Predict the 3D structure of the following.
Amino acid sequence: MSKGLRSLATFSWRAAVWVTISVLAWAIAPAQSRTAAADPALARLEREIARLAEIAGGIVGVAALHLESGRRVSLNGGERFPMASTYKVPIAVQILTKVDRGELTLDHMVALEPTDLSPGSGTLSDLFNKPGVALSVRNLLELMLLISDNTATDVLLRLAGGAEAVTARMRELGIEGLRVDRPTKRVIADWIGIAEPAPWSLERFRELARAVAPQDRQAAARRFDADPRDTATPEAMVALLEQIYRGRALKRETTELLLDIMRRCRTGEARLKGMLPPGTEVAHKTGTIGGTTNDVGILVLPADAGHVAIAVFVKSSEKDIPTRERAIAEIARAIHDFFLFHPAPAQ
């Protein structure tokens, strides 16, 4: 049995629902529609997404675009959410833009200093915390996107020209609802409630974090969720994914490099990929901090049914991470099945 047929054979109970919806929608609106406002089937999908979002608690934002047909769905798609580590995608785009422009090479070696080490996810801060380490830009990119290494991210952000340069690149691409403002070390410090200005050594950071009282941490977390810095709307993130997919953000070689790394992402197996048919190709990036749990990426549908750019953001949730991840997985599966079993009507 071919890969496409095996994938088709794995569809869930939702598939039957979407097939029924497809027939009804064609009877009501035979012309192709792009949004739920004009397409009853897409409107039903949006209601299903809203129902599934309740699993996560907090506020959930979703945007999804079927890249071949232009059909899209959204839930709180214009609301800002903390990107957490999904902001590493726009950072990667800016780094690779500099490569495309001849301002940086992937083989350029970068020496890491003790003050470069950042807390949180990754391995560099734990395994290479002594002087004498140098890594290429390519290796830093892989660490940032594969295992979400925060030290690699902050080094790359500096090489990218800083947060302002990343945001400026987003504006060049016509993306307004996404901004990058701080290195990950500062993002985490603000979430914890560390007031002392950087720079810090990693040990000093940990000392400051331990000194923050629980009530101050809670207040800082509330401020963090309301902070416009380092946020994106789901629709803006999907717009960036679309620009990457269509080759508008980067040259062909760097586009292929970025998507290849994102396809090999080692985090978030229970999120976008969690309930998809085995073997489904997903180029994605996760993000997690406090009550925020995110995953964004591009799904490849089986049987040549196309590609879906998708962003699912959760913020201000008090549910545990596995529960939030289940909500993301359920939403991704609903979207996957809809676009697989509900092809666009002929014009």
The chain has a mean pLDDT of 90. The chain has 14 helices and nine strands. Residues 41 and 200 are 53 Å apart (CA to CA). The chain has two domains: 3-83+229-341, 86-225.
